[in-house]
TrEMBL record:
<comment type="function">
    <text>Catalyzes the phosphorolysis of diverse nucleosides, yielding D-ribose 1-phosphate and the respective free bases. Can use uridine, adenosine, guanosine, cytidine, thymidine, inosine and xanthosine as substrates. Also catalyzes the reverse reactions.</text>
</comment>
<dbReference type="InterPro" id="IPR014710">
    <property type="entry name" value="RmlC-like_jellyroll"/>
</dbReference>
<keyword id="KW-0328">Glycosyltransferase</keyword>
<dbReference type="Pfam" id="PF06865">
    <property type="entry name" value="Ppnp"/>
</dbReference>
<dbReference type="InterPro" id="IPR009664">
    <property type="entry name" value="Ppnp"/>
</dbReference>
<dbReference type="GO" id="GO:0009032">
    <property type="term" value="F:thymidine phosphorylase activity"/>
</dbReference>
<dbReference type="GO" id="GO:0004850">
    <property type="term" value="F:uridine phosphorylase activity"/>
</dbReference>
<keyword id="KW-0808">Transferase</keyword>
<dbReference type="InterPro" id="IPR011051">
    <property type="entry name" value="RmlC_Cupin_sf"/>
</dbReference>
<dbReference type="GO" id="GO:0047975">
    <property type="term" value="F:guanosine phosphorylase activity"/>
</dbReference>
<comment type="similarity">
    <text>Belongs to the nucleoside phosphorylase PpnP family.</text>
</comment>
<dbReference type="GO" id="GO:0005829">
    <property type="term" value="C:cytosol"/>
</dbReference>
<protein>
    <recommendedName>
        <fullName>Pyrimidine/purine nucleoside phosphorylase</fullName>
        <ecNumber>2.4.2.1</ecNumber>
        <ecNumber>2.4.2.2</ecNumber>
    </recommendedName>
</protein>
<dbReference type="GO" id="GO:0004731">
    <property type="term" value="F:purine-nucleoside phosphorylase activity"/>
</dbReference>
């Protein structure tokens, strides 16, 4: 989906790693939350509370998902899933635009 309709957007940004990763939280009409963000080049690690789906809209990066020793390369667009209560690592090589979805549990 290229756009969201009937959504509420939080004005305050979520800022991580000294501003190298930022996002805005969007709440959809059904209560589903997503974040829309940008990552600058760097190495990052994030923890999850619940499951997440990361949709890379553009960029160049590698991701190391929980339970694997193999980095997945992404150039352009792709989607990956991260289980809840886990950590994943990212190595971002070029400005990366993303959308992260958090299902309603």
């Amino acid at each position: 989906m290229s756009q969201f309709t009937n959504a509420t957007i939080q004005k305050a940004a979520n800022i991580y790693y000294d501003g190298k990763v930022t996002s805005r939280t969007v709440t959809l009409q059904d209560g589903t939350k997503v974040t829309l963000g940008i990552m600058l080049p760097g190495v990052y690690e994030f923890g999850t509370e619940g499951p997440e789906t990361m949709e890379i809209l553009s960029g160049e990066l590698k991701v190391l998902l929980p339970g694997t020793d193999v980095w997945k390369e992404i150039k352009g667009t792709d989607t990956f899933h991260v289980p809840g209560n886990s950590k994943f690592a990212l190595e971002v090589f070029a400005l990366t635009d993303y959308c992260c979805s958090y299902p309603v549990l």
